[in-house]
Amino acid sequence: MRIASGVTDQYVYFVAVDATDFTTRETGLSSFTVYRSRDGGAAAAMTTPTINETDATNMPGVYELLLDEDMTIGSGNLTEAITYHITHAGMAPVTKEIELFAPANYTIGTVTTLTGHTAQTGDSFARIGAAGAGLTALATQASVNTVDTNVDAILVDTGTTIPALLGTPTTSIAADIAAIAPEPQKNVALADIPVYMVDSTDHATPETGLTLTVERSIDGGAFASGTGTAAEIGNGLYQYDASQADMNGNVIIFKFTATGADPYLLSISTRA
């Protein structure tokens, strides 16, 4: 799970099971102890860990930990790992890890001077933005004290040396990121979500001809009926076209159920 630096309203899910048989799901737990370590730092107890039980009936043993402490990335870093160790009497310990990352407009340093480079052409600089006036215009300044956090403001010339190899960049770096980002987009319908349903008796045989009931939990909220469309593909495989309303959150949990089949749970993280 990836979370942007400075964001303090996201949850990570974990499953609580019995400390003796490591199978029985534990419900009704509260007052957990949580330790965290960021980027190799010493273990530190979370001051007031917020943990909610998602749904003791429909999702027994599933809990949500609010990530609201020590969520700012170290200066100059683009990504860091944070590990959480969660304990409770009678529960097997749980360890979860997330990735903390710097957003696209994060300032990673400063340029103190470009004096002496006025003779360079645009093709001599690495191309990092949209075609335009070129880094040559930036180089003619006697001194550049800080890097604008909007990287779109740093343009390159219209030469073809590197763009011919990499393709033409778009005007906005944010648009470039959105075009290649693997995460689905928040509040945008998502089609063709795969769902695999198996027999509830042997937990292996693919179930066909089912009528799926779809529910979804948004950002740790209560489950509500999905408003998308489910269809059968074959051999136990189904597809679900999630509606815009289904996807209006940062973390979506879908639950698919049908008579004679095991429940199928799927968690999706979205990007803004």
What can you see in these coordinates?
The chain is 6% helix and 34% strand. By secondary structure, it is mostly beta strands. The strands form four sheets. It has a five-stranded mixed sheet, with no helix packed on it. The chain has a four-stranded antiparallel sheet with strand order 11-10-14-15, with no helix packed on it. A hairpin with a 5-residue loop joins β3 and β4.
Number of strands: 15
C-alpha-based Rg, rounded: 24 Å
Q: What's the CATH class of the largest domain, please?
A: Mainly Beta
Q: Identify the overall geometry.
A: globular
> Unreliable stretches, pLDDT < 50, 5 or more residues?
107-157
CATH fold topology of the largest domain:
Immunoglobulin-like
Helix content bin: under 10%
Distance between the termini: 15 Å
Largest sheet: 5 strands, mixed
Give, in order, the helices and strands: EEEEEEEEHHHEEEEEEE
Mean pLDDT: 82
Q: Beta-strand level of the residues, as a percent range? A: 25-35%
Characterize the quaternary organization of these chains. Answer: single chain
User: Which structural class matches the secondary elements?
Assistant: mainly beta
Name the strands of the widest sheet in spatial order.
1-8-7-3-4
Whole-number total of structural domains? 3
Structure annotation, total helices: 3
The CATH architecture term of the largest domain is Sandwich
